[in-house]
Design goal:
Order of helices and strands: HHH
Structural class: mainly alpha
Strand content: under 5%
Number of helices: 3
Distance between the termini: 172 Å
Number of strands: 0
Helix content: over 70%
Largest sheet: none
């Protein structure tokens, strides 16, 4: 019985088409369409896609090259900036040191000028004091001379009208006065 069923299936097989396997003409025409589309893509689409991908790769490589160049330029600019900054700092240090030296010189010159001005003022003051002392001494001599002559006239009892005598008396009195002052100054020391 199994043989009969199989035989019947074989006989029926030739007459009914297999739903999984398409007919031969469908396979041939499908293969022809596939080859035509494959040739079309191979000739027209694939070169354009390759060209587009190559252009894109070149653009990316160009951008990478530009980025690398920009990186190198930035590093060079940074090195130059760092060098300029170091030079500027060194120059600022030199300027500060020069300013300090100039300040010291100005202060020293001002001190020297003030010292010389003080010495000049002191010398002028001493000269003025000496002139006033001499003037006071001359004035004192004339007054002391007049007083001494009056006193001497009173003590002696005679008038000293002779200028020469009067001058001698005044000089002797002043000499005695100076001697007594020097003796008093020597005793204090």
């Amino acid at each position: 019985m199994l043989h009969a069923v199989l035989r019947a299936a074989e006989e029926g097989h030739e007459s009914t088409p297999n739903p999984v396997l398409p007919a031969t003409y469908d396979i041939v025409w499908s293969a022809v369409c596939f080859v035509v589309i494959l040739v079309f893509f191979w000739i027209y689409v694939l070169p354009r896609v390759r060209k587009l991908l190559d252009e894109r790769a070149e653009a990316i490589e160009g951008n990478i090259a530009k980025a690398d160049e920009a990186q190198r330029k930035a590093e060079a600019a940074l090195e130059e900036y760092t060098a300029q900054l170091a030079d500027a700092r060194a120059e600022a240090g030199r300027i500060r040191e020069t300013a300090r030296e100039d300040g010291r010189k100005i202060v020293a010159e001002a001190k020297d000028q003030a010292t010389s001005e003080a010495a000049r003022v002191t010398a002028t003051a001493q000269a003025q004091i000496e002139a006033e002392r001499q003037s006071a001494l001359v004035s004192l001599r004339s007054e002391v001379g007049t007083l001494a002559i009056d006193l001497a006239s009173g003590v002696i009892g005679e008038s000293l009208t002779d200028d020469r005598k009067a001058q001698n008396v005044v000089d002797r009195f002043l000499a005695d006065l100076e001697a007594s002052e020097q003796a008093a100054a020597g005793g204090k020391k």
